[in-house]
Design goal:
mainly alpha, 434 Repressor (Amino-terminal Domain), 2 domains, 7 helices, 63% helix, elongated
């Protein structure tokens, strides 16, 4: 098993990538707002380079999240490391999931409720549909 520091670096990188994509930013755009090259953002996102406290602060400002955002779910990562299975939040790192979330929140409240009801019914959860 990899050292815990590496698991933490990978977790922070995944959270960084997830938030950047959710905001629709490129690595180049994020790098420009933090004064680094896009290659550095790539290294952060894959966990190859550690993110310093000062850089984490800059990233949180650029991505409009509190610093604690990057650590959300970290206890899950530690637990999963012992179970050798992927973290449950892995689906949120997929581009199609983020595209769906963006499209969902561009809808008005009523269409969002209808879309949610439709998705639940397609999944066989008709009992959950209000």
């Amino acid at each position: 098993m990899a050292p815990m520091g590496t698991d933490i670096d990978v977790h922070l990188g995944k959270r960084l990538r997830r938030r950047r994509r959710l905001l629709g930013l490129t690595q180049q755009q994020l790098a420009g707002s933090c004064g680094v090259r896009f290659q550095q953002i790539q290294k952060y996102e894959c966990g190859a380079n550690r993110i310093s406290a000062a850089r984490l602060w800059q990233l949180s400002e650029a991505l409009e999240v509190p610093v604690g955002y990057f650590y959300d779910g970290l206890s899950d990562v530690q637990r999963m490391a012992h179970n050798d299975s992927e973290p449950a939040g892995e689906m949120f790192a997929r581009k199609e999931t983020l595209d769906l979330i963006r499209a969902y929140y561009q809808l008005g409240e009523r269409p969002r409720r209808r879309l949610l009801d439709l998705a639940k019914s397609l999944n066989g959860n008709e009992a959950d549909v209000a």
